[in-house]
Design goal:
The structure is a homotetramer.
Chain A (H helix, E strand, L loop, with lengths): L3 H4 L3 H17 L7 H8 L3 H7 L3 H20 L1 H9 L2 H18 L1 H12 L3 H8 L2 H19 L8 H21 L6 H19 L4
The structure holds a DNA duplex.
Chain lengths: 208, 208, 208, 208
Amino acid sequence: MPKDTFFNLSIEKRQRIIDMAIDEFAKYSYDKVSISKIVDKAEIAKGSFYQYFEDKKDLYKYLLLNVIVEKKVNYLSHFTLKMQEESFFEVLKALYIAGINFAKDNPKLAEISDHFTKNTDDNLKKEIYDGSIPKSNALLEGLLLKGIAKGDLNPDIDIKLTAYILTSLTISIGEYFIKELKVEDDMEIMTLIDNMLLIFEKGIKNKG
Amino acid sequence: MPKDTFFNLSIEKRQRIIDMAIDEFAKYSYDKVSISKIVDKAEIAKGSFYQYFEDKKDLYKYLLLNVIVEKKVNYLSHFTLKMQEESFFEVLKALYIAGINFAKDNPKLAEISDHFTKNTDDNLKKEIYDGSIPKSNALLEGLLLKGIAKGDLNPDIDIKLTAYILTSLTISIGEYFIKELKVEDDMEIMTLIDNMLLIFEKGIKNKG
Amino acid sequence: MPKDTFFNLSIEKRQRIIDMAIDEFAKYSYDKVSISKIVDKAEIAKGSFYQYFEDKKDLYKYLLLNVIVEKKVNYLSHFTLKMQEESFFEVLKALYIAGINFAKDNPKLAEISDHFTKNTDDNLKKEIYDGSIPKSNALLEGLLLKGIAKGDLNPDIDIKLTAYILTSLTISIGEYFIKELKVEDDMEIMTLIDNMLLIFEKGIKNKG
Amino acid sequence: MPKDTFFNLSIEKRQRIIDMAIDEFAKYSYDKVSISKIVDKAEIAKGSFYQYFEDKKDLYKYLLLNVIVEKKVNYLSHFTLKMQEESFFEVLKALYIAGINFAKDNPKLAEISDHFTKNTDDNLKKEIYDGSIPKSNALLEGLLLKGIAKGDLNPDIDIKLTAYILTSLTISIGEYFIKELKVEDDMEIMTLIDNMLLIFEKGIKNKG
DNA sequence: TATGAATGAGATTTCATTCAT
DNA sequence: AATGAATGAAATCTCATTCAT
């Protein structure tokens, strides 16, 4: 967590620092991000940075666990709404839509998340997430179980594996979206997600 | 490509260098791999390294595009055999089996591939692969087209997206294999792949 | 010397600052003492510190030359009393007892003195004491001269050297006391001092 | 220990580096010594330093435990010779003479030793000496025991305390020598030591 | 008088690459 | 062809002190 000094700064300055940090962490992976570059671009003294943040990791954690999460919350409102009532595939769709809309509106933040997911330093990962990745699979496993209970899904599927596949698709669908399509049109996103989910739907839904 | 000097070395020395490089690139991501460590472990002078290779990238490229690819070829023989005659799903299965067997028999090389796939420096990626990832998708897109032509697949599927999904699954299935299962038994691997493909099969095969 | 602003503070605040400063200077040597830590622990603003003291050195000087000296005065009352009448060795003994009792009752202050004595930055030393160490020797040289005059001491001894030795012993006896003995019992301290002085007594007293 | 690369350097270069390091460590305490300054004065690249030494501590250890010790050995030859046969006071005298002559001929090295002895960071001290300071007292305690056995010394003296005193005097006599006398004349040194030892001799020798 | 954000020089350390021998 | 010493830019981080409010 940033120090109090950081939160006592003017909003403009705080935002400038965060923005420049986002710029760099979106462009480079953790190791390659340079604090010197960030302070240069944010036009603050190097010493000031260390008055605001414990160290590089502190800033990184803050971006990942606060700035990004905060932004993401809005996008997940539909998902959480649907979560209660709808069929498994509707909920899953809401989840993907949330993810993609977030990436569309906040490409840099999505890029940072992407860098983090792909980061290979497991120690750093563990220290920052401390179990949140398994949690992400737990979320999907829970959804799958509910889906089976509701009768939406074929009870014979391998839950763990299916969850793994769905998680991995979150990433690939995001990449596909970023690299192949540069869609402005929301309809296309919907179509994309529909197509992807259709494949699964047939594969894992209950025939009954 | 390594310089001629490298290929003029005795096989033993060449192998020693390659082995130590594989060790390091399997352990660390590109940035964190230390040339100093490699030359130490291979017991060659640092200057010599730069007489064999242009630079760090040169070695990395060589490992990825030559050493690894060369090893992989054997594993793909079944796949290429089946490619001619069998149904789409048989071919796909052969492709996955090849990939998993390769990872099982050459864990370090698989690790290097993994590191590369997850590497976040797009410039490096582009410079090394320079279109090979699209090519990898092109392979799958080709398979899909053939599958449609043969009547195996539903002609309405989004080919590009489906190819993307299948590629992404290569990665996730590999990870799942490495982290969740520590299978000695080939049967389990087969079951794993069967389960995964079943989901797709239902999703994309031709109902007719 | 601290600025007037410091002395205008409430006694409580002043004491809090001094106490925290003592804590830090007892724990660390001059260079390693952190003003930031002191102001944090004393709960004053960093800017305030520089309105009370010129700089770090100013605080340090104040502790050494005022706070500590002030405390020491009581302990030297016996010494000064005896100074008039008693034999050289009685006076010397009183001096050592004063020193050790001071260290026993004010371990942090003693630690600060210790750090200072051992500090290696001669410039700082000179600037702070500015002749006080020679003065400390002058005290002993005076005692020795008096002792000779009284007939207590052998007039042939090298006064300067003997004074130097006695000064150095103040330090070593203090360390020995702190590190080897953890005496609660005053008797043991007396015995320790007696033993040490006995060695000298035989060495420098007048045989006549 | 310095790395091999250091010992492979030309004698001139090696000496230049050592000399500049000695200069700095004689002037400043460990913490204040700047590697940057040393490399500047030795006219080597900063990176080179780290090819020769692990880090700052490595260089410091090398100076203390190798460079200085090596130089000191010669000075102790008389001492070790006398150690076998002579009376306690002769041996002690030889020890002091060795110490003082060393300091006279190698004032900077003596200064470094002095800085180290007075250094307050016990962790560093422990790491470097790892028990050598108690050993120094053990040496004197051994001498004292031998002296008692031979009948040179009063068996009633407190051995530990006496050893402590003698150790402390090694330091103070060195300082006295450096600061008060700037003797060229060896005779004066002898007189100085004789005077000091006389005091002790009377104090602790066997009356019988 | 009180505050605490701002400063910036300077510290140690790393490492791919070059180059003289 | 082989060697390994030399390089130096760039990295993170520290901290006493200043200064605007």
